[in-house]
Design brief:
Elements (H helix, E strand, L loop, with lengths): L1 H13 L15 H4 L1 E9 L8 E9 L5 E8 L5 E10 L7 E7 L2 E10 L5 E5 L6 E5 L6 H13 L7 E3 L7 H9 L4
Antiparallel strand pairs: 1-2, 1-8, 1-9, 2-3, 3-4, 4-5, 5-6, 6-7, 7-8
Length: about 180
């Protein structure tokens, strides 16, 4: 029985580790991070498979933790919602949290790139099987996607397996070109 308890404890603790080459951002400010983020890209995993229009909303909890509310549309437009909670692993100024959607299991949530204005974030977990590009808007420039792929690839992620989430942004570049051609 003691061995079983030790094994379970070690398994739970191992889910909040950081890979050696991935560094969470420093000088993190949770008050700037909370709010709505759109999932732009991800590596495939079972709990989001086939989903589009995916977003996450973060807000403060009364216990000092962070409420996580993930939303998306499954096939045939059926909504899927998952609520979780997150807590800082070390200090509140480091972009390393542990998140749980199924108590008592926690996984690392590591923000390894974040722009100064908190408009996009590169996020992973304790395994290179999980990777997300999040942004404050559902449509982002190709340059941001390229930057995400380059940085992620240099850290050993399989960027050839990335899924770009459908947010109906396909015509954004064409619209921008049309608007630049007008004198309004």
């Amino acid at each position: 029985m003691r061995n079983l308890f030790s094994t379970i404890t070690l398994s739970l603790l191992s889910c909040i580790v950081i890979s050696d080459e991935i560094e969470p951002v420093e000088n993190f400010n949770i008050s700037k991070y909370i709010g709505k983020w759109y999932e732009i890209a991800r590596l495939d995993h079972s709990f989001e498979r086939g989903m589009e229009n995916v977003s996450a909303e973060y807000s403060m909890r009364n216990d000092g933790g962070i409420k996580v509310l993930n939303r998306g549309l499954k096939k045939q437009g059926k909504p899927k919602v998952a609520e979780g909670k997150a807590y800082f692993v070390e200090t509140a100024n480091k972009g390393h949290l542990k998140v749980s959607f199924f108590w008592p299991f926690y996984s690392s949530y590591i923000i390894f790139e974040l722009d100064n204005n908190y408009q996009h974030a590169f996020v992973t977990s304790d395994s290179k099987s999980y990777l997300w590009l999040l942004a404050r808007t559902p449509c982002v420039p190709k340059a941001l996607k390229d930057s995400f792929e380059k940085k992620s690839s240099s850290l050993g992620f399989k960027t050839s397996e990335l899924i770009y989430v459908n947010h109906n942004c396909d015509n954004l570049d064409g619209l921008k070109i049309q608007m630049e051609g007008t004198n309004e």
